[in-house]
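For the sake of transparency, this paper describes our internal protein records without simplification. An entry from our holdings is shown next, in its original layout:
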Amino acid sequence: MGNPTGNALPECQLDRIQDLIERLRIGDGRRISPFAGPRLTCFWMDTLCMFRYRTNRISVMAKIAVSGIPHGDKTLKHKAINNMHHVYTSAFLVLVLDEWLLQIPSSPPVLDILTRLYQSNWVKRLWTHQEGFLPNSVCIQFSDRAVDLGYLLAKDTTLQHDFGRHAIYLNFPYATQEILLQQYTVIKKEIMINLKNGEVWKTYPRLARAMAGRRTTRATDETICLATILRFDVDAYQNFKGNSEEERAQHMMIKFLKELKRFPMGIIFNNYERLGISGWRWAPRSLLHHRNASLGYKHHPVERERDTSRVGGLEGFPVEYPGSLVKFGSVMQGLRSLERAFAIQADGSWPIAHQYVRIELPANDDARWMARIKYDTVLGVILSEIPGEEERTYMCVVGKSTEKQTDDIKLFEHYSIAKARVLADPPPRIDIVKAPLLSQQTKWFVR
C-alpha cells in the first residue's frame, strides 16, 4: 500500500486509510478507535505520516503529511529507522492492510481465517514482524471490518478445545496459533520478561522461530529489525561498512550474537547455513526462511549454557562434549566421494566393543572444506552424547582440531554438522580409522 520510490500517495488512498482507522470496532461491536469525535487524527506508515484535523462546527478539513521513512536522504532515513521502536510501542494499535486478507470477510470460521492469514504476505515479510510484536494491539482488516488478534486467539482456543473434546488432533491449527497468534501475545510476554530480567539471550530461540518463515530482499535488514525489537543500539548496525551486502550482513550478525553473548551448548549442532567467518562458524548466518531448521538445543539431554569468549586471543564458543580425534592414512576415498562419510572403529575406550561408528555428512552441506583436508590433518568429531545403541542416530559436528591443547581446551574449527550411527559390521566403501573416545567432560573451543 506504500510507495517505494517516494514519500507520496494518492489523496484518495489517504482518505481510504483514514476512513478504515475511524471505523475500527472490537469483536462485540464497540468502537476501539480513540479518534471518535472532532479531534486530531493521525496514522504512520513507511511512506508518510498523515495528520488530519476536522471539526463539526465548520466544514473544513486540513491535512498535513510528513515523511515516515524519508526517501533519498540517507541520514534522515537512518534517524527514522532508529526511532521505529518508539513509533510502534507508542502506537495505539497497528492496522494490517494486506490485499490477500482484504478479499475476504471476517465471517468465515476461524480456521479458514487463520489459513488465509498463514498465506498472507504480512506473516512472510521481515519488517512486518515488529509491526505485530511491538504495539499493544494489532487489528487485521478484512473486507467488512477489522478484527483484533486477541479476539482471533480466543476464537481459535475455543475451537481447539472443541477438537479435544471430540478427540480430533490436527497439527496445523496448533502450528498456526503459535506462528500467527501466540508470538504476539504469549511469546511476546515471555520475551519481555526475559528482557526485564536481563536475560536477553533467552529470546534467541523464540526470535528464530518467529523469523523462520519470513524473508527480505536486503540481508542487512535482518539484524536491524532484530535489534529494534530487543532495543539494541540500532544506529550501530546501520553504520556497518563492507565490500558487499553479504559481508556487511555477516559482520552485523556477529555483532548481534555478541550482544546476546550466551547460548545453550547444543547450538553447535544447528542445521542452519552457518557464518563463514573464523570464530563464528558454529553460528547461524541468518534466521530467515528456514521453516524446518533446528537450533540444535534438543540434542543434549541436560542442556547447559556458555558465553562466547576468547582463548589465546581467538574468538569462539566453549563447550563440553564427548568426541574423538581421527587422522586418516594415505587415502580419504569415503569422505571425498559421494558417500561423504567415514567410520571410527571402536577400541576399549568405547562402550561398544568390536563395533563401528559411521560419521555421515549431509549431502547439501558445503563440501569445499574437504578439498583442504590433508592426509595428516587431525579431524575432530564432537558427539552430542556417547553413542551406544545400535542403528540409532546421534548428532555430531566434524571439524579441524589439534592433538595439542591450550589450557586443557581443544581448539576446533567447525566444518559441518553430521550424524553418527553405531554399526555392528564394518561399512563398505569408506575409510575406517581407529581412535579413542574422549570423555563427556572434554573441553572444546569451537570456532
Summary: The two ends are 45 Å apart (CA to CA). Confidence is low (pLDDT under 50) at residues 55-61.
